[in-house]
Structure prediction request, 164 residues.
Amino acid sequence: MGAGPADTFSAPYSRRTMTTTHCKASDTEDRWLLFDASEQPLGRMAAQIAKSLTGKDRPTYQPSELCGAHVVVIQAERPVLTGTKSATKEYANYSGYPGGLNIQSIARVKERTPADIVTLAVRRMLPKNRLGRKMLSRLKVYAGKEHPHTAQNPEKVGPAKPKS
Prediction:
């Protein structure tokens, strides 16, 4: 008989299977991170938080698993806004009815619900599905310096280093 396709290759190439290790959410330990909103610009901090919530900062990242960290944000009433955003930034909410567009300035949101500024910035960077909503539930935002998660010993995360 003639040599088939499997007979033409040498030993290293013969029907070798590749393996991929999958890490389940139950196999990972819970990490707690602490961010201070008054130390870095809002968008940069929100991008760093979204990366930590999704777990993309870890080598065990799985897109379909909840393997991110728990994130605590303090001093949300003092976010750092660059440029003229403190005077011009607005949040729009639409009720679904004609004429139901509700626009609020950032100053009004800051005086009513200061935690929403950080929460909205992070929420818009997360996946728009069930997993993204679970990730957002791991975000805890507080207006002042105190938070009730001291028992979890969250590690403080400073401002991201600029890429050079």
Notes: The two ends are 62 Å apart (CA to CA). DSSP finds six helices and six strands in the chain. The longest helix spans residues 42-54.
